[in-house]
Structure prediction request, 89 residues.
Amino acid sequence: MVQDILLLLFILCFLALGFWPMKFLDRFLEKNNRISGQKEQTCEPSCILLTEDMTDEEVSAEIRCYRKTHRHAKILLYENHEANGSRLF
Prediction:
């Protein structure tokens, strides 16, 4: 009978001591996920695709918009000879 009570107390203490760090871990992970989600939402594309279907005004507008968020952007122009246009470099 005493062993059963001691076992029950040990299990309850073990659960209580396990619950406490898990609560802090959950808070940490939730905070970290919120920060990661904000970074993903505010992340701008690192490249843009300008196709031959775009007008000169559309190309110019895309470049201006991209340059607003990427101050040190460099522009590389090349002609893609593949029919499907799937390969960029």
